[in-house]
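Dear all,

This email documents one entry for the complex benchmark we are building for the journal club exercise. For each entry we list the sequence lines for every component of the assembly. Then comes the predicted three-dimensional structure of the complex as a token string, followed by one or two observations. Please use this as the template for your own entries, and keep the labels exactly as they appear.
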Amino acid sequence: MLLHEPSKQDITEAYDRIKSQIHRTPLLTSETLNKMLGCELYFKCENLQKVGAFKFRGASNAVLSLNKDDLEKGVITHSSGNHAAALSLAARMKNVPAYIVMPITAPEIKKKAVAGYGAQITFSEPTVKSREETAAKIVAETGATFIHPYDNYTIIAGQATCAKEILEEVNELDYLISPVGGAGLVSGTCLSANYFSQNTKVIGAEPKGADDAFRSLRDKTIYPSINPETICDGLLTQLCEKTYSILTKYLNEIITVNDESTICAMKIILERMKIIVEPSSAITLGVVMDNPDKFRNKKVGLILSGGNVDLDKLPWIKTKN
Amino acid sequence: MLLHEPSKQDITEAYDRIKSQIHRTPLLTSETLNKMLGCELYFKCENLQKVGAFKFRGASNAVLSLNKDDLEKGVITHSSGNHAAALSLAARMKNVPAYIVMPITAPEIKKKAVAGYGAQITFSEPTVKSREETAAKIVAETGATFIHPYDNYTIIAGQATCAKEILEEVNELDYLISPVGGAGLVSGTCLSANYFSQNTKVIGAEPKGADDAFRSLRDKTIYPSINPETICDGLLTQLCEKTYSILTKYLNEIITVNDESTICAMKIILERMKIIVEPSSAITLGVVMDNPDKFRNKKVGLILSGGNVDLDKLPWIKTKN
């Protein structure tokens, strides 16, 4: 496991480590959207990544970085989302156990997804205390390695491989826009842009109703994410020291987007590009739609981070109760 | 324009004619769906074709096959669907007019789509008589060439290029499944399988509530499509002499699917593959889901013919009025 901010070599090594088990996801373009928005957009489709999210990159790098003894004891995390699914699949591909601590209140669909990847789920009360105690107990019993979804340099190096692929495929991007939650993905994106394409500015896309990272960078202190209100359910977490430090050094800016724009972007991506993405991904297009002047005639990469959506509740459709 | 059933050379020439202006659409696979259904599925993503449907292949071939004089006078069709959009775009790419006759009752979204591709729309009453009279009048005035959506060998040769691409990419497919409406696509698919992969059996997928082609082939007579009832709004039309004749010679069988299976297939494709397809396309997966024994351990190509869906009315979501 990496104990320092990933170097160029760390990211290259991460990519070599994981490339045979991840999808090299397509970088799609849309003439219609380019015309509509007056810029050149490149959509990196991590919704087509294994488990439907970029999280599989970091999780794969974490699992494949373990030494033989640790690997056999397995991995553990507490999460109910894409990181849990990603870690479960990465562990299964090495035939080692994945222990997932989930709040008993997690949606059925997420429990099923993680169980489907062969993880051993332990339910906790829906409090931080219960979750951490439950995880600590399993670590003590099994010796499994705890893999945090973003407060982990090996995870960040894995997520950085996404931007590395983009920058290999398209030269001289003016901007690269990544969603901001706990900031594992955007941190990795910043590092890859710094190492592989110095003139590409990285922008973080954050929901207006969960703008703790925006405020944290502005005020130079890490704010907790308290009662976030947004449809972007993958972007509710707060920065940690590691991601804060990377963003402070390399991130150009954070632009916040309201949910209305994000929903509109999600629908346009489905309508025009025929692919489904999470609100937490569509927000990157929301940034461009909200700021046409800034991006006019620019080459812009957008990371569509995931596509795991509850298809019974699409946000632009009012459903019957 | 072709006056005979397309030969191998006609299809190869069609492909050479259109290949620079169509997308070579991806052929996707899904480990999850393969495991779920016990077979090897290859999804040809014509939902990612220009205008969001395979129709752009045939329309391009028709427009690009016109001689210089005819080309300048433009093209005309009556349709409110994907063929109209496809013909409009193919004409615009050659800077010639496209005249589209549409019933005044056509959905707003379809009028907008066709208008967006620069076509000149003329509205008719929603009857066959009014539609044909309106078209005849425009032909008389402009000298434009009428391009039927499927009763046209040049169109059929264009649609055949879809299966040609599939069969170039994957060897020894056991089955190739295409939706059946007026049968331009499935006819072209039959021809390409016959010329390029003799051991591949072609299956037509038809809605149970619009099974006129199934009955026509069984009873050796072309039945009209009367009051079809299905969610597959691209598959409401009936066979013509040309398509009937090709299917009689080369089609292995038609399998009918009820809308419940089709809707389920559409949702699974969105959930697992993250792409949206029309019900008229999802029906091909419905065939496999309904007949697991037939397809077990087989290599099966499925043509996902289009992705133009009203996103405000997804069939598995009950909306508020």
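Observations: Chain B touches chain A at residues 26, 45, 47-48, 52, 267, 270-271, 274-277, 307, 311-312, 314, 316-320 (CB under 8 Å). Residues 91 and 98 of chain B are 6 Å apart (CA to CA).
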